[in-house]
Amino acid sequence: MNATIKDVAKAAGVSVATVSRVLNNSAAVSEAAAEQVNKAIKELGYSPNFLGRNLRRCETNIILAIIPSTEQTFYSEIIRGMQNAASEYGYDILLSTSNSNYALEMRLLNMLFNRTADAAILLGTQLDAKALMDLSGKYPIALCCERSEGADVLTVSVDDEGGAYAAVDYMIKCGHKKIGMISTNGAAASSLDRENGYKRALLENGIPFREEYIYKGTYDFSHGALGFEYFRGLPDPPHAVFCISDILAAGVVKKALSEGYNVGEDISVCGFDNILLSGMYTPGITTVEQPCYEIGRTVVEELISNINNNSKIRKKIRLPYKLIERETVKKIL
Amino acid sequence: MNATIKDVAKAAGVSVATVSRVLNNSAAVSEAAAEQVNKAIKELGYSPNFLGRNLRRCETNIILAIIPSTEQTFYSEIIRGMQNAASEYGYDILLSTSNSNYALEMRLLNMLFNRTADAAILLGTQLDAKALMDLSGKYPIALCCERSEGADVLTVSVDDEGGAYAAVDYMIKCGHKKIGMISTNGAAASSLDRENGYKRALLENGIPFREEYIYKGTYDFSHGALGFEYFRGLPDPPHAVFCISDILAAGVVKKALSEGYNVGEDISVCGFDNILLSGMYTPGITTVEQPCYEIGRTVVEELISNINNNSKIRKKIRLPYKLIERETVKKIL
DNA sequence: GTGAAAGCGCTAACAC
DNA sequence: GTGTTAGCGCTTTCAC
């Protein structure tokens, strides 16, 4: 069994209150006493039991971050941003992967209900708007990267619409007119927002929107190839394609390459996210960068601000994107 | 404030002991009482406070997994394996990223000392063998993916030596004789083991080992290109290169491609890990697959077995690799 | 089958 | 500046 605060008190010849005081620096303690306590702590190898402390304080200083999986490498920087901001406020970030599984996500959220965590950040949740609103009414929560339509919940993400607009506008400025888009089937708000950006870029450049130029699949790599094949089967196929993710973009690049296309010449491709893969690929994939580190920092700052002020301000923060030009978009003009 | 067990007891007209019994199914309770309790729980939206429970039980059922970062996409499956095994035993896995930072890792390990977690799994630690031994004497810990030379600690990883041997032996059987290797500078045991596998394959095939055929850098993508350039500058450059990671392999592939080489023809490359990137790349990167899911399952099974039996069995488990043939190794014969 | 009560380790009044 | 003590929410022995 580990040493407790009592053991330390006895060894130091003081009361538990005094030990607690030096532990938390919560009140003045005579130098002599403090010294005795610290000596005893060292000798006994004492470390305060946080279960006791947290129970007493009704807080854990732990923020739970639920991510679908660690596969999406772009979460990495977001998490780093979260951690850095959290530690500045004395909080720790604990990660959990839900595998996009509703039951598992609920089980993890249980940490909120059973007081093992003070707050939660959801990166791509399975919960619907109503459930999120309920949750947000009772606990400090935030959405990250993926907003929920109709849910008034603190959320921070990249400017999806603007990023997509910028990408497509860039392609148009490069001389492209027939631009397809690969999006997802579900109701993911980020996909919807990016579709809107795509449409607005077309519109503002006087290019008519064509329903058949949008292919919808899943987030899986394989749907890049599938989308490519779909477009190629069209009577009047697009020469360029904007994808809602780099993974999908890589899928079309790989498929096009394997079919003998010269990507960046015969066909142009643009992704979204700027994951490591995009820079590593040959050819380098042109994409829209998300300010991951800043996104991570911002959510926890806002969340902790809500916790500390016992407020429930539900900001919707959109952070700026950045277009990353590489080699997959041909400059015709 | 949330409802407590007292509130439930009052609402149900029973004692807290009875509520606890139905909560934990720990002893027989009359059907009538159980019904009352469950009704009260539902009405009050009661959820047991785990801080109280855990404090009382002296356990949290939480296993902390400390990973360097979520960037290495191959951790993803390992984590899934850990989670699945853990949940079968009533445990949860909580992730934390150390960013390969000693101070941060210690701060996270503090969760072990302060009883916020029952056990920890380290995937690539900054601690030295002595510190690990000390830790292992006091808490249930395990190493995952990366053993520590001289530390008698429960560890599970892929058969690094065997995997490297298989890769190099395969390249030799494909007709290659001049095979370089890109490894890392530090004391990472996995790199050392893979170097040994490389040397043994050479030896057993009667090919003399050449010191200048080993390039050592960091794990960073950029060192793939650096290694490639180093080899090319040699008076008698290798025609094939085995890398200790897929990221590094992708680095050499990209660099070679950009220099006009036909990878898989003019130069052959083999990686290690079989991360998603390898299959997505063009050309597909030949590599050695780690049984990630199984690795994850196995560590937590062994760890929980130690916890439950209050034992400290320090198995060293090596799981089998699998060679994945793709397009970056030329078959000369 | 059920309740009273002790106590897990800690913090924070409160009294001195 | 320091000690005593109540109590955070829970489980579990013990008695009935």
Strand order, main sheet of chain A: write it out.
2-1-3-4-5-11
The ordered string of helix (H) and strand (E) elements of chain A is: HHHHEHEHEHEEHEHEHEHEHEHEE
Q: Can you tell me the CATH topology of the largest domain in chain A?
A: Rossmann fold
The CATH architecture of the largest domain in chain A can be given as 3-Layer(aba) Sandwich
The structural class of chain A is alpha/beta
Residue runs with pLDDT of under 50 for 5 or more positions of chain A: none
Overall pLDDT confidence of chain A: 96
The amount of helix of chain A comes to 40-55%
Write down the domain tally of chain A. 3
Shape of chain A: elongated
**Number of helices, where a helix is a run of at least 4 consecutive DSSP H or I residues of chain A:** 13
